[in-house]
Amino acid sequence: MVTNSVKLTDVKKSFNGHDVIKGVSLDVQKGEMVVFVGPSGCGKSTLLRLIAGLDTPTSGQIEIAGNDVTYAHPSKRGVAMVFQSYALYPHMTVADNIAFALKIQGLPKAEIDAKVRDVAEVLQLTHLLKRRPKALSGGQRQRVAIGRAIVREPDVFLFDEPLSNLDASLRGQMRVEIARLHTKLNATSVYVTHDQVEAMTLADKIVVLNAGRIEQIGAPMELYRKPANLFVAGFIGSPR
Ligand code: ADP
Ligand code: MG
Q1: How far apart are CA 234 and CA 227, in angstroms?
Q2: Separation of alpha carbons 85 and 38, rounded Å
Q3: Ligand 1 atom 11: the closest Cα is on which residue?
Q4: DSSP 48
Q5: Which residue puts its alpha carbon closest to atom 1 of ligand 1?
Q6: Within 10 A of 76 (CB to CB), how many other CB atoms are there?
Q7: Closest-lying ligand 1 atom to the alpha carbon of residue 55
Q8: φ, ψ for residue 104, nearest 5 deg
Q9: Separation of 43 CA from ligand 2 center, angstroms?
């Protein structure tokens, strides 16, 4: 049985000769929430895009659910990504936004409708299904973006700073909601944030990145109590 959900082996990525990811190896187990933290520009989004297949590594290997997907098309990886910017289709209703990927897959309409209803219920979007994105609050839009990911039943959820555009109180609320969903769906998630509180409260494992390398991997309290170096101590220990 494969318990390894995402496996990176010595992944490197350079852009125009500039090394951005400098050899990252990582195991994410099924059911885990792994959070990437690190300063702006350290390569968090690039790593996530490599896992999603929005870009390919310069060298190294990426496996998902036991399959080598290093060069596989994004749609063949069993991943779904949630972005900071929501990326909803403005001209479509909430229901159509959630259903979009399933329509492309050619699922029967009755099946699509049932899945959209289920997802809407889980995310408390049922009363909003006929609205368009511009008639929603920021938190509601982010819920739709999450709904769009959930409805595809991916092996792995990828989150790139999904709450950065929300105000502080809503951010706290959505954080709790994401934690609840992750547990309820028994999901495997890789979550990028620069928010220390998000990392400490959501993560089973935190990966501290610095300039394209992993400084330390560990449970939140492990990093907090035994930071491997001053960089980790500064990043986990002090509020930012
Ligand atoms: P983070 O998400 O941690 O803030 P990124 O992964 O977005 O960092 O970026 C890491 C580094 O890679 C940055 O220096 C950025 O400018 C560079 N970079 C990212 N994508 C590209 C690209 N498509 N072309 C050139 N440089 C890039
Ligand atoms: Mg980023």
Answers
A1: 9
A2: 20
A3: 41
A4: H
A5: 41
A6: 11
A7: 23
A8: -60, -35
A9: 7
| DSSP-derived 3-state class of residue 88 | coil
Closest CA to 166 of 146, 188, 190, 186: 146
SS (H, E, C) 174-203: HHHHHHHHHHHCCCEEEEECCCHHHHHHHC
Give the phi and the psi of residue 67 in degrees, each rounded to 5: -105, 140
ipTM of the complex: 0.98
Dihedral angle sign, alpha carbons of residues 203, 206, 208, 213 = negative
| Mean pLDDT of all residues in 210-227 | 96
Length of the chain measured in residues: 240
Going by C-beta distance under 8 Å and a sequence separation of 6 or more, which residues neighbour residue 203?
33, 34, 35, 191, 219, 220
Q: Which residue has the higher pLDDT, 91 or 85?
A: 91
- Indicate whether residue 154 lines ligand 1 (CB < 6 A): no
Most confident of 86-90, 119-123, 189-193: 189-193
Does the C-beta of 185 come closer than 6 Å to ligand 1? no
205-210 and 156-160 as β-strands: parallel, antiparallel, unpaired?
unpaired
